[in-house]
Write a structure and sequence with these properties.
The complex is a heterodimer of chains A (about 350) and B (about 90). Chain A has one helix spanning about 130-135, and strands spanning about 5-10, 10-20, 25, 35-45, 50-55, 60-65, 95-100, 110-115, 115-120, 130, 150-160, 160-170, 175, 185, 205-210, 220-225, 230, 240, 250-255, 265-270, 275, 285, 295, 315, 325, 335, 345, 355-360. Chain A contains one helix and 28 strands. In chain A, the strands form seven sheets. In chain A, strands 19, 20, 21, 22 and 23 form a five-stranded antiparallel beta sheet that branches. Chain A has a four-stranded antiparallel beta sheet with strand order 3-2-1-28, with no helix packed on it. Chain A is mainly β and about 350 residues long. Chain B is an alpha+beta fold and about 90 residues long. Chain B has one domain (about 1-85): Roll (Ubiquitin-like (UB roll)). Helices cover about 20% and strands about 25% of the residues of chain B. Chain B has helices at about 30-40, 40-45, and strands at about 1-5, 20, 25, 55-60, 65, 75, 80-85. The longest helix of chain B has 11 residues, at about 30-40. The termini of chain B are far apart. Classes of the chains: A mainly beta (about 350), B alpha+beta (about 90). The interface of A and B includes residues 57 and 79 of A. Chain B: It holds the Pfam family ThiS. Chain B: This is Molybdopterin synthase sulfur carrier subunit. Chain B: InterPro entries: Beta-grasp_dom_sf, Mopterin_synth/thiamin_S_b, Sulfur_Carrier/Prot_Modifier, ThiS/MoaD-like. Chain A: It comes from Spirilliplanes yamanashiensis.
Chain lengths: ~350, ~90
């Protein structure tokens, strides 16, 4: 079994492959060198897997490129693949998320951007159109931004119902549609926004990442700017699942590809102390939907550890047992071939890792 | 006929051409509109979809930084050289 691991960094996209059940990795040279790759996706709904990369140059602006030959060649349209219409009065600054839709919509790909907007592609991710219904939402003037900028960084199509899509933005919170994108509403009940005068607002939360349970699409997990939550009712209400974590701050949250209730996170001490708790490099896993968490650190560095794992820099593959991966702002990438029980390095000394995605090929 | 000078970093967007002859005169905005029509892959690297020049793209018309001479309204003479240069930026 071979696995492809796509590593988006501040200065390019690196593609790593392991042909021996994820024991040894070959990391290729940078694609899009000197361009930030905040979003990468692998779409396997067609024949060959399609790589999609959101790339942006500090000089020349953002774009989306696709490859149907595992990165040997990349294609971009002549015109900007995603752009606001003239009357929107806005410009895309960065693509934060690329999410292929469900098997029921084979050509549909979603993209979340900075500023906070959702785009939809009907041609497999080559070109996109703004989802006006969300852009025109009356809440939009009140959506804020954090240090990383204002963005829709999470898009979660419902694998059982193409009409339902969840998005998450910083700041703003979780919004979702149940009618194919015609209307959108905030679903943040129970998520605290400690940084606002009213800490329980309808919207305005600083959600960092949302993941969907492998078995139950109505079950969602959210890592917030302080606060880790689960919803068992498709986001209508949220309950804290931070109880046995050493901290409720962090960026990523990842769900197992098949096993219900299995999730991973990488807690940091606090908003004001952004390093791993006790300076220990540890992934935390729960196998009961967040009721209990246990650290996983076999093989990870044992010396005091400062690097941070960003919101999309952790993922799972679709193998059995599932592989888990994370990359750091210090340019390290770690892999586990046994669901987090043990870890081994994939790469080090890369640029800051912004996102990772892994699939069997 | 004005000439647009393309930096090395963007010549992949022009098929390798470093000097682009343009018919449009009048203003820098008009020149970039012609670039958009004839070399769209280049123009979208220079301006965003609102028409604004990207922050770290500098354009000099006959050696003068357009940001000091009226921006996209900068006059472009028929014989002008419009030079695109990336600014000193990045980490």
């Amino acid at each position: 079994m071979a696995v492809l691991l796509a590593i988006g960094t501040q200065k390019g996209l690196f593609l790593a492959q392991a042909a021996d059940d994820r024991r040894s990795w070959q990391v290729g040279p940078a694609h899009f060198a000197m361009q930030a790759v905040y979003a990468v996706a692998v779409d396997r709904r067609g024949g060959a897997p399609r790589l999609l990369a959101g790339v942006d140059s500090s000089h020349w602006g953002p774009s989306v490129a696709v490859s149907d030959d595992l990165g040997a060649t990349w294609q971009e349209p002549d015109s900007a693949p995603l752009a606001f219409p003239a009357d929107a009065g806005a410009a895309v600054q960065r693509v934060w998320q690329i999410a292929p839709a469900t098997d029921a919509e084979p050509g549909v790909v979603w993209a979340g951007t900075q500023p906070s907007a959702l785009f939809r592609s009907a041609d497999g991710g080559r070109t996109y159109e703004l989802v006006r219904s969300l852009w025109d939402h009356p809440h939009r003037p009140e959506w804020g931004e954090g240090y990383g900028g204002q963005a829709i960084h999470t898009v979660l199509p419902d694998p059982q119902d193409p009409a339902r899509v969840v998005v998450a933005m910083s700041t703003g919170g979780v919004y979702q549609t149940a009618d194919g994108g015609a209307t959108w509403r905030p679903t943040n009940t129970g998520i605290k926004a400690y940084f606002l005068p009213d800490p329980w607002p309808e919207f305005g939360q600083c959600v960092h990442k949302v993941a969907r349970d492998a078995a139950d699409p109505r079950r969602l997990y959210a890592q917030n700017h302080h606060g880790v939550y689960r919803s068992d009712d498709a986001g209508e209400t949220w309950q804290s699942i931070a109880g046995t974590l050493p901290s409720d701050f962090g960026f990523p949250i990842v769900a197992h590809p098949r096993r219900p209730g299995v999730i991973w996170g990488f807690p940091l001490t606090a908003d004001g102390e952004r390093h791993p708790v006790d300076l220990k490099c540890r992934v935390f896993r729960s196998t009961d939907a967040g009721e209990h968490w246990t650290p996983q650190s076999a093989g990870l560095p044992e010396q005091p550890y400062y690097p941070v794992v960003l919101r999309d820099a952790m993922c799972a593959d679709d193998a059995d047992p599932a592989g888990v991966y994370f990359g750091t702002r210090s340019g390290e990438v770690w892999a586990s071939a046994d669901e987090g029980e043990s870890w081994a390095p994939v790469a080090e000394h890369l640029p800051d890792v912004l996102c990772v995605r892994a699939v069997t090929i | 006929m004005a000439t647009v000078l393309v930096p090395g970093a963007l010549r992949a967007e022009t098929g390798g051409e470093s000097r682009l002859p343009v018919e449009a005169g009048g203003t820098l905005g008009g020149v970039l509109d012609e670039v958009a029509a004839r070399w769209p892959r280049l123009e979208r690297r220079l301006r965003d979809e609102t028409g604004a020049l990207r922050r770290y793209v500098n354009v000099y018309v006959d050696g003068e930084d357009c940001r000091r001479t009226g921006g996209l309204d900068t006059p472009v003479a028929a014989s002008a050289e419009v030079q695109v240069l990336p600014s000193v930026a990045g980490g």
